[in-house]
Every structure is written in C-alpha cells, then in structure tokens.
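ok trying again, last paste got cut off:
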Amino acid sequence: MPLSASTTLPHSVDRVTAVLVNEDFLRDTSEYVGGSLESFAVDGDPAGAFVTTTVRTIPTTRMPDIARKFVGESLKVTQIETWAAPAADGSRQSSISMKVAGAPLDVNAVQRLVSEAGSTRIELEGTVTSSVPFLGGKIAEAAEPMVGKALNIQSQRAQAWLESH
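nice, full thing came through this time. structure:
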C-alpha cells in the first residue's frame, strides 16, 4: 500500500531535525498518543550522517478492529532512521524502516526535510506492507492512514515543541 504525506513547519531544517531526533521530544510525542518511549539511541553525529533507533509502545485503540484482532491492545514499534548528511541547501533525507513486534506489518519510507525560505517541508513517501495471506492487503490498507496521521501528530507536536523550547 503506497504511503504519502506532507506538511510544512515554519522553522529551519536544522531546528526541525534537532527536534525529530530529540529524546525528550520523542518521549513527549509517545506519551501524547498514550504510549511510551522504551528506548532511543543515536549512532553518529546529527550534524552529518547518522542513524537513530527508537522503540515505542503505542496503544491500538485508534486502529481498525480488523487490525486490533491481530495485534492486541498495544504495539511495540521499532523505528530505524538512517539520515544522510545535509545537502548544500541544508535539506535532509532519511530512510525509515518500522517493524511492529508480533504483527505482520512493515513500513519502509523516505522522509525529506526540504528547506523553503526559512520553513521546512516534510515529505514522506513509502510503502506499508503486511505478510498475512489473503488479509495482508486489508491490514496494510487499514494501517496506511494511521501512518499519515502519525506524521501529522508528530508535526503538530514538533511545532508546539519548537515554539515552547
């Protein structure tokens, strides 16, 4: 199932990147949706190329019933982001891989942070797949809007975080 989402924040790419890889911000966002941040690690210097690994537990209360039947009351999600060094114009790109423990659901995407006159356009393009025979397409189809909603929540929380910190 294709995944596509985009939003713009009125802050520089450097500031947006710093927030997206801030452990306190990730904890705040996880708790905002009723989950918890289990662990977070950064490998490398965020000024250049680096990798983050984030493990969260999130509730499934907002998921469609068909998906909740398979996964239960909460999900443990491991997200690995491989960030490239900044481009000449300051824009950034990361490859995102999400695995859901105990659920046949994978997300692979590319996130671009594009500099636009002092603002940052966040673009996310990728796929949501499920390996369940016969039902995999329906599960991926049900999960795809949730990933887009997660980007919107993350962007809203990032905007509030940037304004208050």
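cool. The longest strand covers residues 105-116. The chain has a mean pLDDT of 84.
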